[in-house]
Structures are given as structure tokens and as C-alpha cells.
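To start, an entry.
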Amino acid sequence: MQSVITGTGIGVPPHVVTNEALSRLMNTSDEWIRVRSGIQERRYADTGQGSTDLGVLASHAAIADAGLVPTDIDAVIFATMTPDHLLPGNGPLLQTALGLRDVPTFDIRQQCSGFLYGLELADLFIQSGRYTRVLLVGAEVHSPFMPWHLGWDTLIGKETREITEAERIENTASRDRTVLFGDGAGAAVIEARDGRTGLGPICLHTDGTGASVLTMKGVSFKQRPFVSSAQISAGDTLPTMFGKEVFRAAVTLMPQAVREVCEMSGLVLEDIDLLLIHQANLRIIEGVQKALGLPAEKVPHNIERYGNTTAATLPILFHECRQNGLVKPGMNIVFTALGSGLHWGAALYRS
């Protein structure tokens, strides 16, 4: 029995935010952002639109693509670092919005590696015989992280007021992170099928000694209160990232994981037809590609249009590859990601 992806879908908000638009809020430019990240634009959710809402859009599309209806789903895995609420998780909210049966929902928190870890769980569920149709969702709404003063409505065209110089200075202080992220969701229906196609070996790793290179200090239950105006003013509710360390880990550990999953599969690197890398930064994508010696045509990317959508990058990219005809029968497709934790790994999928 194999775990086969039978349907995919995406849910992206309508508001396209260009680099030029961001330059109206902070001291940056299209060139500054492109050179450092490769990003040209990203999507921002509307006011009141959460990661569950985007996940619902992606899920409806994926379920329809699989030729199913919502009541066919046996279990849900929802990967996100930006849930609608601290509690409950997004799983039960998605279940209700989709009109699913009384099925279990699992909320997982592996950040940028969330979809990859979700593939492992879905495969284990199916291989055990516990469930036969699993809905895996990766969805994020990062824009509320941004410490801008009334800047959201300016960016999505609902307001035209000028940002004050004091606000511009404060916004600029976090530009190294805020220019990177976008909002979006991707979903996949994974079913038990006979045959040789489907998920192959998956290798996952965690090294908590690297947790401090990408973390968020605020909103912590180690503190009393767990969130305060002082934390917000200090910027502690915005992720802290040591970019050089993250880059070094990404271009080292993801290639190692790809080689590991190839060895587990009896493949060599040349046997990979498509390598789908977490879309964090174009420089990281190019670094992983170079480390593995793969041609550019085998390493598609869409970060220039979406930015980093964390747990949503892999399912959005895979869906677009399917839609664009890049995924063909008989292909060896490898997913790989690295995220806060540190969590990383790779998974083989035979189409």
C-alpha cells in the first residue's frame, strides 16, 4: 500500500504587495529586497482573514481535485506557526468550516518544515491502516507579525495616508525580516493506493541546540504576563533571526538530507527529476542547488511571487508544478525543508 497525493490546492489572499509598496513604509527598495532574497512581491491577507480561512480555500480545491467530497476525509493534519488563536488549534476550526465528519485533527508546529513533517505523519497513518484519506494543510498568515503602525491598510490599498518619519524609522528596524514573509496556504489529499507510485523514504531531523538562531522571545508562558505592551514595544513579538547562521545551516543540512533520502531509496542525485526546496530565500535555494550539482530546470521556485509562506511553501510549489505540467508520471520528486527548531529533512515522492 502506498501513500499517494491525489489532489492539491492553494489558497492565497488577493492583495499583492510589491517591494515598491513596502518602500512606502520603510527605508528599502525593490533592488535591496531582490538582491538579498529574490522576492519581488508577496500576498497579504485581508483584515480578519486567518490561516484557517486560507487553509479552507486550499482544502476545498485539493478535495475537489482528488474527485472527493469533504465527508470522504478520514483525518486532518494542519501545519502552521500562525494559528488563528493560541487555543484551540486550527484543526477543529478547519473541520467545522469544511463540514467534515467527526474525524480527528492534528495540529503540528514545525514551522518551515511543517508540511514535510506532515507528510511523514500522513504516510504513517496510511501505512498503519488507521486512515485511508488524509488531508494535509500548510497555511500561514504572517502579516500580523509586522510591527507597522497602521501600515497594513496602506499596503493593501484600503488607506492612502502618509507614514510619519518616526513610523518609518521604527518599521525600518525590522526590515531584514518583514520583507521576507507572505501569507498563503497549500493543501494535499493523501490516499492509500496500490502500486509503485507515492511517498517513498522520508528522513527527518531535529537539533534543539540550534533553536536560538530562529525564535520569538515574546508571547511566552515563561513570562508573567505571557504578553505585554512592553514586549510589543521592544519588538519581542517579532521573530528573531540570525541570518548567517540560518543560511549556513540551510545550505548544509538540506543537501545532506537529500543525499540521505536518495541513499535510502537506492537513487543517485542524477535520478532526481524535481527538487522542491522550502521557499525561504532565493539565495538559499541556489545554494542548495549548487551543493547538489543539479541543473536549474530541476529546481523550480516561486519565492519571487509569494515570499516565504513557511509551512505553505512546499504545497503551493508542488501544486503549481502540477498545474504547469512539470510533474509527470514516473518522476522522482524530492521535498526538502529546514525551519526553526531546528527541524529539517527530505522526502521522496514517486509520481
Q: What stands out?
A: The first strand starts at residue 2 and ends at 11. The CA atoms of residues 203 and 260 lie 7 Å apart. The chain has two domains: 2-193, 198-350.
